[in-house]
Amino acid sequence: MKLTIERAALLKGLGHVQSVVERRNTIPILSNVLLTARPSGLALSATDLDMEIIDETSAHVETAGQITAPAHTLYEIVRKLPEGAEISLSFNGEDPRLQVRAGRYRVNLPVLPAGDFPVMSSEGLAGPVSVDTAGLMRLIDRTRFAISTEETRYYLTGIYLHTLVEDGREILRAVATDGHRLALADMPAPEGAAGAPGVIVPRKTIQEARRLLEDSGETIDVLLSPQKARFEFGQASLTSKVIDGSFPDYTRVIPRDNDRIMRVDNALFAAAVDRVSTISSEKSRSVKMSAEPGRIVLTVRNMETGQAVEELEVEYDGEPFDIGFNARYLLDVTAQIGGEFTEFRFADRAASATMLDPVLVIDPTDAGVQYVLMPLRA
After folding, report:
1. Is residue 305 part of a domain?
2. CATH number, residue 189
3. Exposed e or buried b for every residue in 280-310, given b needs 16+ CB within 10 A?
4. Structural domain of residue 342, as residue ranges?
5. Is 336 within 8 Å of 292 (Cβ atoms)?
6. What is the pLDDT of residues 41-93, one digit of tens each?
7. Are residues 246 and 351 in the same domain?
8. Neighbouring residues of 196: CB distance < 8 A, sequence distance ≥ 6
9. Which residue of 3, 26, 79, 196 has the smallest Cβ count within 10 Å?
10. Among 46, 49, 42, which Cα is nearest to 9's?
């Protein structure tokens, strides 16, 4: 194998694929990137056995061939080379190392046989369906913060992507929850998506897909099966196993009759929550919200560090009540709000001044997004 490639092209390709490679691997080949030189250019592949990223880039190929080399080491070498450098990659059977040259710089890297590199099968994938890039980025951005990090509830450690019909419209929906909060975002379903299997896309795959979307065109192709998902971003593609499990019936926890409505200035509210929660205990991060017509009072009490209180003006004209929230969850939700105001919808429980029912949070500027927060005891 022998080829010459521009630094920018190789750096971009390696940047796309090397992030899937774990820093520590018990299987040595998984620390490597597969380099495939063919007349059309250079293909780079990396995998962790659950996910595979392939990127193709232009290169001047003198001799076709395949070999694997340490992914992170090669990326760091290319990153540190000067801009505009012409890089030569060569390998032959006489020297069991990959030779990397750029100007007066040269380095030899250890290799492993390309035949040992695992390749993920695309069998069973249906599609492709063309999905609007900006729309998919919005679904991911509005929901991924709520993905569970609790590995014992593995079926919550991803985003549930599925299609449905609501009010006569076909919708592509993303849902994530960790059992304490839920995030839901909708977009019009792309043509041909009806009947596609609902899949739970793992957190790591979501992170990598979101990163690749930044360099994509106006649309990408998505192919799904009950076991796998593939996202095709022009020259790059990401194939991943999906989580083998059933996502819970999230519709049961979305409040339908929360009639107490409060509108707050999002930026002022988030800043106030952040200030009072400075003294909260790291475990619960509990903040008490006391509401009455025209105002709320945020209170945090900590036996060790004291008490913090802040009052805010709000749009609310209902009965007084108290409610508690995890401050981190409040800040995560307010960070997703695109407009000036956040709308909280509380259950109407006249018999109790303390709220324990799920709270619906709405972005008035984005009707396709809903958030649900479970309160703490105030």
Report:
1. yes
2. 3.10.150.10
3. beeeebbbbbbbeeeebbbbbbeeeeeebeb
4. 254-373
5. no
6. 999 999 999 999 999 999 999 999 999 999 999 999 999 999 999 999 999 87
7. no
8. 126, 127, 129, 162, 163, 224
9. 26
10. 42
In a domain, 355, yes or no: yes
| Neighbouring-strand partners of residue 148 | none
**Mean per-residue pLDDT for 309-326?**
94
Contact status, residue 108 vs residue 99, Cβ threshold 8 Å: yes
Alpha-carbon distance of 280 to 326, in angstroms, equals 10
Q: What is the pLDDT of residues 201-257, one digit of tens each?
A: 999 999 999 999 998 889 999 999 999 999 999 899 999 999 999 999 999 999 988
Preceding omega of 96 cis (within 30 degrees of 0): no
Here the tokens at position 281 are 């205990």
CB atoms within 10 A of CB 94: 5
d(CA 274, CA 295): 18
Residues in contact with 80: Cβ distance below 8 Å, sequence separation at least 6, in sequence order: none
One domain, residues 237 and 260: no
Distances (CA, A) of 301 to 53, 241, 374: 48, 45, 20
Q: Is the C-alpha dihedral spanning 205, 210, 213, 215 positive or negative?
A: negative
Q: What is the pTM of this model?
A: 0.91
**Residue partners of 168: CB distance under 8 A and separation at least 6:** none
Residues 196 and 224 sit within 8 Å (Cβ to Cβ):
yes
Q: Do 24 and 132 fall within a single domain?
A: no
Answer yes or no: are the C-beta atoms of 336 and 174 closer than 8 Å: no
